[in-house]
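Supplementary Text 2. Reproducibility record for the structural model of the 453-residue chain.

All settings were left at their defaults, and a single model was retained for analysis rather than an ensemble. We include the record here because the model underlies the residue-level annotations in Supplementary Table 4.
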Amino acid sequence: MFNAAPDTDAATHPTSPAFPLTRKGCRRDMVRYGGVLTSAPQSRTELCPERSSLTRRPFEEGAAAYEARDIRQPWRDLARKPSRNPEAPAEDGRRERGDWWIRWSCPHGHLHRALAGPKSVATEEVQRKRLERPCPRHQARKVNHLLADVIREHLTAAEIGKRSFRNDKRYGETWTKRLGGRSLEEVTPADLEKIRIERLAGRLRRDGDKNKKSRPVTPATVNREYAFLKHVFNIAIRDGKTERNPVAKLKMLREPSGRVRYLSDEEEMALFAKLLTDESRDRVRMLLQTGLRKSEFLGLRWKDVDLKVGVLTIPRSKHGETRHVPLTSEVRAILSRRARSLDATALIFPNNLGNVDLHWAEKDVPEAVEKAGIRDFHLHDTRHTFASRLAMEGVDLLAIKELGGWKTLSMVQRYAHLSPRHQRRAIERLVTRAVSGPRPIEAAGPLSGRDNN
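Retained model, structure tokens:
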């Protein structure tokens, strides 16, 4: 215990900081700390011999007083800040509630304080500060990251090993042209909702230009664009670049059930008549009898075909799994007629340069469909035609799922209504089923066995 006289400047100016004590061996344990009001001035200070802090408490009279507190005790880290007149009641007659200060020490040896509010809030806050021990002086400055930079970094990382990178690149370019100049914090749910409405109405193009004409897009297209942006924000949150995801505040649009468009026999004959070459007809006929996706068909190689067994192997389907497709006799004849390359990795249906023939799929077939007068038909609809014809021939949905390579049975349920004959045969089994006991006597009519009189 010893006395410490306040400095004259501190006594003259109540708001000036307190000066550390000069006790030998305790200077490192002493820190400056501005205090709060007390009821009476004190001229002497009692200090903890191990670790203390010097607290100056200025008063309205202009005097300065000091009090030592042991900061090792949790309750010592709370200090009440009363109003100018603590005894004055509030308008409703109750005593005014005071706010509480909290203080904590950081790993750098600094003693910090902050105004926390009511005592219950201050108690929770001081416990959190004592565990985290943050230092406001050494906190890194907040950096506002541009959305365009975050998208570019994500596309650079996803370029290798992601099969849907082509779509991601298109979505990334779309959002870069729309909101690329904004930071992550400047993108709000209201802005995203406005863009979504304009896209659905056809007032905004994919590149963000409102002056050029555009056509309305489907809800599925908008959902894919916003799903990409939501993923970008989630990655930014993971990397500590932002703390919120504005896309999460929006609900995805409801998408209509998948369309079922299949070729009738008359439309198939009209399409074959407008195809220019026999090879084009063989390609379409093979698609109708295998149900392959466009990417699977254009990427077929000779090493994936086993004509002896009659099986076509898809090394990596849409879902990342290997799939085996049985070949019909007509498909086996088509493949047998083609000149087989000595290179097993060569494409079965290449273009003139030996590459994937996208021109045939995106130009030749649509032109033939248009000349044949077939409406609302795309190359992918040959896959719907494959499944629809199987369903109309009475093949069960589980077998259709396996033949077409669908992941879940729910994707094949849309073809169930195309097999009414199969459903009638199934329900008729309730009548023709075998009965263990004698069959009940059939009634002759509603009044059978009764006297009409």
